[in-house]
Amino acid sequence: MKPTDYNMKKTFVYLGFGSNLGNRVENIKQAIQMLIEEDKLMLTCLSSFYHNPPLGGLTQPHFINAVGLFVTNFSPFELLERIHLIESKLGRRKVRKHWAARPIDIDILIYGSIKIDCDDLVIPHKEIKNRSFVLLPLLDIKKDITIPGLGKASDLVKFLKLDDCKKIVNI
Question: Any idea which residues carry the catalytic annotation?
């Protein structure tokens, strides 16, 4: 699918946020603020924040993660461009080691009920079913959420180790 294949109706989109450098919570809040500055994206719900270790075995600070539910007029590809711009403005380097520490990471997790699988964009996010720090915040927002092509998040989360992913109560 190309950007022109989508009409400009309003669509629900779930975005995942992560940060493990600097003031992690503020980085996420700033990214959300920058996203909603345009009229094409409106935050409707934000999950709790979660604290979890980094993936990939590199020695680095733990992550803070959250998920936001937005309504958008952006096509998936326009949204991806906007996300990359914001990540860059917040200090994320394009060229970095895989799994490296970063001030912000924003992923399109779910975009309506569509599925996209191309070089630049995979929706639902290709690792969504393997990440407690994504599934738990999704369930905070909507207990019965179904991930297109994968099933209910409440079923998927049963197969994951949850010990290392902790909800942050006081921020």
Answer: 92, 102, 105, 107
